Amino acid sequence: MSGFEPYAELDGNYSDARATACPWPVARDLLTGAEVYWLSTVRPDGRPHVTPLIGVWADGALHFATGAEERKARNLAVNPEVVLTTGNNTMGEGLDVVVEGRAERVRDDGRLSLLATAWEAKYGPEWHFDVRDGAFASGGRTALVFEVRPRTVFGFGKGALFSQTRWRFS
């Protein structure tokens, strides 16, 4: 996806008449800089599950890690379709972003090493991971790493001009 920028489409039904579509680089920068994301998955019995987590935007995808026995990992084993959200909890300003896609396991040790470096650069040395057997390893625990390449992203602009932008990816 290097260099690819999806087309930004403003939904006039949910936007101020004076609003314009949010440019993709603004949403991408928010995804890159966010400290916390909310992951929505579906339990095997169909009930929703939402949890906050940390992650890294790299190479056109959002990445997160989880223990193999955690609820989110067990949900993904049955249904890899997810929604990730981030933004701020105010109405008067900012942008909220919703990423829809499929969580795919990252197993390549070379890629995982690059992601581990990105994790530590973003969150500090307490989030240092070694890479072992296709997973992150730290303190005797193992974490599976997933990437979500966006299929559709929504941006909800707040403040003086409310807006809803949609970006579609192939």
From TrEMBL:
Keywords from the named record: Oxidoreductase
Protein name per the record: Pyridoxamine 5'-phosphate oxidase family protein
Gene3D superfamilies named in the record: Electron Transport, Fmn-binding Protein, Chain A
Domain Pyridoxamine 5'-phosphate oxidase N-terminal positions: 27-149
Organism: Streptomyces pulveraceus
Classification via InterPro entries: F420H2_bilvrd_red/Heme_oxyg (IPR052019), Pyridox_Oxase_N (IPR011576), Split_barrel_FMN-bd (IPR012349)
Signal sequence extent: none
Superkingdom assignment: Bacteria
